[in-house]
Amino acid sequence: MAIVVDDGLDSLTVAGIAKRLDAAVGSLYRYFPGKDALIVGLQERAIRDFHDFLDARLDATRDALGEEAATPMGRILAVLVAFSAYLEDCAVDPSRHRLLDAFLSSPSAVLPDEHARAVDQVLEPLLAAIAGLINVAVTAGVLSPGDSRVRTYVAWAAVHGLDHLRKRDRILASELRVPHLFDETFAALLHGWGAPSEVVSAAIARRATLDLALVTRPATEV
Hints:
Elements: H1 2-7, H2 14-21, H3 25-28, H4 35-65, H5 72-92, H6 94-105, H7 113-139, H8 148-165, H9 178-192, H10 197-209
Helix pairs in contact: 4-5, 4-6, 4-7, 5-6, 5-7, 5-8, 5-10, 7-8, 8-9, 9-10
């Protein structure tokens, strides 16, 4: 993980890891048959760790809201927190976040299809958990019916793009910085999915009062 964070994904090789550990290359093949297996292991670990972090953020939100968690505002707030957690992760665990970002941002396929499907099996519960929050809001009548999985992917793509814009926050006016753009982006998405304007506004305002707000310090150059 440190090699990926320090030097980028392309620098990850079995020989490089052996050198970093001052170990024999052959000894590493006892644990991983090759680079692809190493990348699978890294991805799976980062995804599981982030899923734990997301669950903790959602639990903290429910605890803070109490009975409000079951209100329309609470349902929408849970969706907001689920996606803002990815941006928070940059400050909470920079190494994990840089690793996740490296895999998501690579312009070419990182793994052969077989290995990519193995990683997808670990990613699926995370995406399903987020889609489940959207479904809960639909069932409660706060959002209109729609494909929660497609909505999850659309919102995830949006928040990943915002994550890359964050390095420019230091030179932009506040209304163009990522914390404000996050609220604007998700207000537009949620309105498009049928959420009442007053519920969305209340959820955005409530999130700002929780100890779960977006980290506003600029991200390092990537």
